[in-house]
From TrEMBL:
<keyword id="KW-0378">Hydrolase</keyword>
<dbReference type="InterPro" id="IPR018711">
    <property type="entry name" value="NAGPA"/>
</dbReference>
<keyword id="KW-0732">Signal</keyword>
<feature type="domain" description="Phosphodiester glycosidase">
    <location>
        <begin position="143"/>
        <end position="330"/>
    </location>
</feature>
<dbReference type="GO" id="GO:0016798">
    <property type="term" value="F:hydrolase activity, acting on glycosyl bonds"/>
</dbReference>
<keyword id="KW-0326">Glycosidase</keyword>
<feature type="signal peptide">
    <location>
        <begin position="1"/>
        <end position="26"/>
    </location>
</feature>
<protein>
    <submittedName>
        <fullName>Phosphodiester glycosidase family protein</fullName>
    </submittedName>
</protein>
<dbReference type="Pfam" id="PF09992">
    <property type="entry name" value="NAGPA"/>
</dbReference>
Amino acid sequence: MKDKKYRNRLCASVSFCLLLSLVSCKQRDDYPVFEQKEPVVTVPEVIPPDNEIGALAKKIMDKTDIIAIFKLDSTTTLADGIKRTHVRYMNKLNQAMSMQILEVDLSKTNISVTALSPFDDYLFTVQTLGDMAKYNEGRAGGKIIAAINGDVVTSSAPTGSFIFKSRQLKTTTTTATSDTRPFLGVKKDGSVFVGNKPSASSPMDSYNLNDLASLVSGGTWLLYKGAAVTSTVTTVQANTAVGLNAARNYLYAVVVDGGTNAFSVGITYNDLGKIMESIGSSDAFVTNGGAASVMVQRAESEGQSGFLSWKVVNSPVAVAGGPSANGIGFVLK
């Protein structure tokens, strides 16, 4: 009998608590009203019409099927002998594309090419390209006008060989038994060349590492002595490439953005090779791709207290681009 009375009291208490909680949940008259967030609407980009096709875009259109629909291009002279062209287009799959092209006239005696190292140091580490240019400015022999990312990073070090300020920091991919990885070499006299070979059976121009002031390796051959080096890799991504014409008096550095369907989806190695060949390269290779694909240019604010920086001119996935183990700088002496 006592248990029954206890149970009745317990049920009554629970019922009272439930009723009390329901009453307490009633919203007060002065309770603030929060506005509902409206869904984010993506506004499609409107590209202004461009009825004049620049020289480099026209070469690509005339010699390849890469540009299905031309959108716009613009060319900026960064210095006497260095021009940057930005091209927007739709590829053959009707996908948006964006590409930056540096055209460097190596016949100009006031232009030089140099390797860049993180923090202007000889230790292996990584740094974003804009900051790397800033640190390397003091010993570059002039003004660093523009730069592109260098080699693929492996454990905070460049994957291939690397020579910085005539110091051979790594030479594992330039030995007699391992010389198929491409590199851009700068001799101590300032002349620039693309070294190594795409296969063990390919002929190769001889070189002496002791003659080099700079060497920055890459990952994938695109062109070798005027012929395409076909890749079986079909990955579509952002990519950075560098190439030389047959006379070695013009250098072309290309950064194709990737990873964003609305802006630029990316490009395969084989299609990038077609671009490099069409604009004039005889030897060309990819330095690195993905988030590390970055191009920067010098930006000086006016006035006596002007601020010096190197702004990213392409659109990498990360705002400043992924960190690099080295870079290639283009210098106005």
